[in-house]
Design goal:
The chain is mostly helical. It is built from eleven helices and no strands.
């Protein structure tokens, strides 16, 4: 699924930028640093969730500005459900996608997409509720208990941030200068995406990716800092971050051509 995610996100980038050369570079970059980004051997649930997430982005991009047919609604609802079944933390992205759909496709389409997703996912939630007393996977509570133990012994928010950054450091350099530069570029990429959304007065798909990435990182750093799983929990956020940085590169190239 990691390889398929690579292909889908490269297509998303090409459709977003219409730049063939940069799209090839982006795809090759994901392959070259696959151990740090997509991690093709990162486990089925993580790689499946990333693939479903990338397909969701691709579909939303494809349907932008178009009215959604019944087939589109079923496809989006199904992808949302399977993404959440793969990893429950994909619900962070699903929440912002819901807002995006509401703004760009209206209440009716959003409602039926949500109903479709609930119909697909409800059997698993019902099973969890009957046998564990919660709709959430039982492993989630186990992870929270382990995190609580580490927090009583040594784990602080600052250490969680440091461990998260080591996971998000694509080049595995782990020293201050490169980390600062990488973080600064990512920050500029996010600022540019937010500015573009405000300027166009629209809840853009790029804005969905930005708030998803920031919210997911914040959730795991400050609420559930299971640092031993950061390479899985933050994998999709890292992929989104790389995508956003490449989007900034493309905007810089376009601006230079106009000068």
């Amino acid at each position: 699924f990691g390889i398929l995610t690579n292909v889908v996100m490269t297509l998303v980038y090409y459709k977003h930028t219409k730049n063939t050369v940069l799209s090839i570079i982006f795809g090759v970059f994901l392959i070259a640093f696959h151990n740090n980004i997509l991690n093709y051997f990162n486990g089925l649930e993580t790689s499946l969730a990333m693939f479903m997430g990338s397909l969701l982005i691709f579909m939303l991009q494809k349907y932008y500005g178009r009215s959604l047919s019944r087939v589109h609604i079923l496809a989006l609802g199904g992808l949302i459900a399977f993404a959440m079944l793969a990893r429950i933390d994909m619900s962070i992205m699903v929440f912002f996608i819901g807002l995006y759909l509401l703004v760009n496709h209206g209440l009716r389409s959003t409602f039926f997409i949500a109903v479709t997703a609930l119909i697909i996912i409800s059997p698993m939630w019902g099973y969890n509720l009957i046998y564990t007393g919660s709709i959430l996977p039982e492993s989630g509570q186990a992870v929270k208990n382990i995190v609580a133990f580490h927090q009583t012994v040594h784990l602080t928010p600052l250490k969680s941030m440091q461990m998260a950054w080591k996971t998000l450091d694509v080049f595995s350099l782990h020293y201050a200068t490169s980390s600062f530069i990488s973080l600064a570029i990512l920050f500029l990429s996010c600022c540019h995406g937010v500015y573009a959304a405000i300027k166009n007065k629209n809840f853009t798909l790029e804005l969905v990716l930005i708030v998803t990435m920031i919210s997911t990182i914040g959730f795991y750093v400050f609420y559930l800092p299971a640092f031993w799983f950061f390479d899985r929990y933050l994998a999709f956020s890292l992929l989104l971050g790389v995508f956003l940085v490449f989007c900034l590169f493309e905007k810089i190239m376009v601006a230079n051509r106009k000068m």
